[in-house]
Amino acid sequence: MPAKIRLGILGGGGDSLIGVLHRVAAHMFDAYEITGAVFNPNHEDSLAFARELGIPTDRIYPDFDTLIAEELKLPESERIQVCSVQTPNFLHFPMAKKLLDNGFHVICEKPMTTTYEEAKILEEAHKKAGTVFALTHTYTGYPMVRQMREMIASGVLGRIHKVDARYYQGWINPIIHDKAKRKSVWRLDPEKAGISSCMGDIGVHAFNMVEYTTGLRVKSLLCDFNYMYDDNLMDVDGTVLIRMDDHVKGVIRSSQVATGEENGLAIAIYGEKAGLRWEQENPNFLYLLSDTQPLQVYKPGHAYNSELSLDGTKLPAGHPEGIFDSMGNIYKGAAKAIRGEKYDEGEFPTMTDGVRGMNYIEATVASHKGGNIWVDMD
C-alpha cells in the first residue's frame, strides 16, 4: 500500500458537521493521515480538539500563517502535502491562494470563493502551481449520480430536452422570522458568506449537478430571489430559469425556507428517448423513465453499472451508502491525482467547477438586481 498522504486541516473543529464529514471521508480508504491542523481560531481549543481525536499536538498550529511557515521549514518528505479548507466562505480564497502559491495541494469546501473575480485569480494561481485542487461538491460522489452522468454521456437519453434541479431545505425558516437571530447567523452575513446565502450555499450544488450530469454548460439565466425581510441582505429562496447548449432549457429551484424540508436535493434530466431522476434523500435509486417501457430502477453495486459508478461503491448490492461515502469518493479521487495515478475526470470537482459556480452565483444576483433579466454566463 502506498504511504498515506499527509493531510492538513483548516477549520472543522468542535461539533462542526462538515468537519466530521471531511475527517471520515479522508480516513475511508486509508489514503490520508491528519498530520497538522488549525481546527479553531483559538489555539487552546484546537489543541483540546486534537487530543480528543487522538492526534499528536506538535503540529497543531495557532493560526494558518504559522502552519504554512512551519511546514515549509520541514523536508518535503515530511511536510503536509494537501490541506483541506473547511472554514466559513470568506476564508476560502485567501487560504487556498496561499496554499497554492506555496506548492500545496488543496481540497476546498464550496463556494470556492466569495466573488467571481477571486475565483479567476485562484484559477491563475492554480495554473502556476501545477498542484491538485479538488472542490467538495459532495453529491458528485454518489455512485448513482456517477451512473447518471455515464448513461447520459453514452446516449441513453438521446438529445436532452429539459433539466429540472431543486435543492430545498427549511433550516433558516425558524431563524429568518426573528430579527435578532437572523443578524447572528454567519450565512446571512455578506461579510462572511459572500453575496448570496441560499444560492451560494445550496443552489450552487444544484447548478453543479446539472452541469456534472449532462456535460452541458449553462449559457444564460434569469433569476428571482426572495429575501423575506427588508433588513435581510441575503437571499433565502430563489428560482432560476436556465438556457443551456443545443436549445436545452430548464429550471434550478433553491430554498432555505421550505418548511419541513431537510436536505431535498433532486435532479431530473429528460431527453428524446428517456428521462433520468435521482433524489439525494434516497440516493441508492436512479430512475430511468420512458414513454414506451416500464419504469426501470438502477441501484449501486450491480455489474450493469458503469466503471465510474462501481469504483465509488464500497459495499455489496443492497447495502445502503450515503453522504459520508459520497465525500469519501471525492477524497479517493483526489488521492489518486495527488499520487499521480490514473483517475476518471468525474471523480472529483475541480477548479473549473469552482469558477463556474462563482460565475453562476454572481449571475443570479445580477439577474435579480437587474429586475429579473436574462444574464449571460462566461
Automatic annotation (TrEMBL):
Domain GFO/IDH/MocA-like oxidoreductase: 145-276
Domain named Gfo/Idh/MocA-like oxidoreductase N-terminal: residues: 6-135
Gene3D superfamilies to which the protein is assigned, alphabetical: Dihydrodipicolinate Reductase, domain 2 (3.30.360.10), NAD(P)-binding Rossmann-like Domain (3.40.50.720)
Domain of life the protein comes from: Bacteria
A single MF term (Gene Ontology): nucleotide binding
N-terminal signal peptide: none
Protein name: Predicted dehydrogenase
